[in-house]
Amino acid sequence: MPLNSNSLQMFQHIKRDVRDFINIDPLQTAGKLTQAAREALLEWGDGYSVCDYCNGVLDMIKKPPIEEFVHKALPEFLGVSEARVMNGARESKFAVMNHLAKEAEGENYVVMDAWAHYSSKVAAECAGLDVVFTKKPEKQIEPEDFKEAIEAGIQQKGKKPLLTMLTYPDGNYGNLADVKKIAQISHEYEIPVLLNGAYAVGRMPINVKKMGVDYVVGSGHKSMSACGPIGVLGVSDEERAAELFKKSQYNKNKEVALIGCTSRGAPIMTLIASFPEVYRRSQPDEWAKEVDLAQKFIKRLEDTGEFKLFGQNPHQHDLMFFEAPGFFKISEKTKNGRFFLYNELKEKKIHGIKPGLTKNFKISTYGVGKENLNFVADTFEEILRKYE
After folding, report:
1. pTM (2 decimals)?
2. Which of 94, 149, 177, 226 has CB atoms 3.0–4.6 Å from 270's, for a disulfide?
3. DSSP state of 335
4. In Å, what is the CA distance from 375 to each residue of 21, 160, 353, 361, 381?
5. Which one, of 281, 241, 269, 268, lies nearest residue 257 by Cα?
6. Given pLDDT bands bounded at 50, 70 and 90, which one contains residue 13?
7. CA nearest neighbour of 38 among 274, 224, 277, 230
8. How far apart are CA 326 and CA 337, in angstroms?
9. Torsion (CA) 268, 270, 276, 279 in degrees, nearest 10
């Protein structure tokens, strides 16, 4: 039966009803488009728009300035020898793991922190690799946790892992582990290190060579103010980059790890359009301001006695995880149950805490600003008083 006009109309004029809200969702705070990116989205939104300018190698397009961005600006920004734009952070992780797996013999594995994102695990699985995890820490991942996991892996598998991967910060609590020490431990075993910077690249200073890691991945739509899906991949030294980005035997212009081409059209053009602002806000002084606002917001909530921060305290990142016993008690008594908090926040035009969460939840303060953060804190306090 053919689709009727009513069923087709539901696909038109779809609106996002929270666009003008104060947004504290960790997935979205650093992914909001800049004005320049919004203009680029309209300009380059047609399918394959960028390909009009391609002579066979997407990242070598001179106008628009994709070559300048991918081969000059992005490597300098990340502190790497070579960089590429990918279809997402998970695709970047898979590209590295798949390359290493193909170069090795037999069954192999990677070591990851206990808080690794599910996409990291799936990327390893897709590359045919097993995973050995560090132990779950009481507060944060420690360098010794990686040493223990590497040793455990060697004992279990009879060989060292192909790769160690650190989530920085971890996506649960926003903790920042000691990257340099973890990289040093891995290199003592001659194991390369991949840094999953999905919540770091584009928010805070990242220099791969100074941090001592070998690969870094970032998320354009999570942390670099680009429409997604899009990600970035950086490789620390030229030798590793040449191995990872080798050309296809079937088409001398196409890199195998990229499956020929990656992001094109609106995603890459919004990433480029936002880059000047992303570069500015990622400098040490600007990041210090964000951390200061995050710490003041945390103190404001903790002073109520109804919020407990999990993870590092004093906190060093905008992503944070709270336990809220006061909200949980209200949810057990009120008519709307555990959805009361979402409804109360929606009335105040605050978005980011998922429906049904009251006992604990994640939020991000990135780019929200002092005035809006004060409003969020005021609202939390008002809700607690309302249900006393």
Report:
1. 0.94
2. 226
3. T
4. 12, 51, 15, 18, 10
5. 241
6. confident
7. 274
8. 13
9. -70
32 close to 351: Cβ distance less than 8 angstroms: no
3-state percent helix, strand, coil for the chain, nearest multiple of 5: 45, 15, 40
Whether 206 contacts 180, CB under 8 Å: no
CB atoms within 10 A of CB 132: 18
Please name the residues in contact with 235: beta carbons below 8 A apart, sequence gap of 6 or more.
Answer: 80, 81, 82, 83, 214, 215, 241, 244, 245
Instruction: Report the topology of domain 35-281.
Output: Aspartate Aminotransferase; domain 2 (3.40.640)
Short-list 105, 263, 111, CA closest to 194? 111
Q: Chain centroid to CA 76: how far?
A: 20
Tallying the residues shown for the chain, one arrives at 388
Using one digit for the tens of pLDDT, what is the confidence trace for 318-363? Answer: 999 999 999 999 999 998 899 999 999 999 999 999 999 999 999 9
Please name the residue that has the structure tokens 């060697």: 154
284-386 matches 35-281 in CATH topology: no
Indicate the CATH number for domain 284-386. Answer: 3.90.1150.10
Amino acid identity for residue 328 in this structure: F
- Which pLDDT tens digit goes with each residue over 249-295? 999 999 999 999 888 889 999 999 999 999 999 999 999 999 999 99
At 210, is the secondary structure helix, strand, or coil? Answer: helix
Residue keyed to tokens 């600003």? 369
Per-residue CA distances from 184 to 7, 187, 191, 257, 365 (Å):
58, 5, 10, 27, 32
The Cα-based distances of 197 to 66, 184, 269, 332 in angstroms read 22, 18, 21, 38
Give me the residue spans of the domains in the chain.
35-281, 284-386
Alpha-carbon dihedral sign for residues 263, 266, 270, 272: positive
